[in-house]
Design goal:
By secondary structure, the chain is mainly alpha-helical. It has one domain. Helix 2 runs antiparallel to helix 3. The longest helix is centred in the first third of the chain and has 23 residues. The chain starts with a helix and ends in a 13-residue tail after the last helix.
Length: about 90
């Protein structure tokens, strides 16, 4: 179990860094599904790792990060409207 949690935590960190890289280099928009999806999945994995190791401040910030990402995805415009930012 520890190995799965460790690998998941590292994978989550990589996904969060990838999301940051993509938005910083303007390859995706900050409101795109790809960016928000990478943030949500990355935060779930890092959050699970933080919870497992009882790192409650890190766990808490990842829970908030997940809520922000899910809210951003839920409030996206319907596909019938042209998007102003690339996925």
């Amino acid at each position: 179990m520890k190995l799965i949690i460790d690998v998941g935590g590292w994978l989550g960190a990589i996904l969060l860094l990838l999301a940051y890289f993509l938005v910083s280099t303007k390859r995706v928009g900050g409101t795109s599904v790809r960016y928000q999806g990478l943030n949500v999945v990355g935060s779930v994995l890092v959050g699970a790792n933080a919870f497992y190791y009882s790192a409650l401040p890190s766990f808490s910030i990842n829970v908030v990060w997940i809520m922000i990402g899910v809210a951003a995805l839920a409030h996206r415009r319907p596909a019938s409207h042209p998007a102003t930012e690339p996925d």
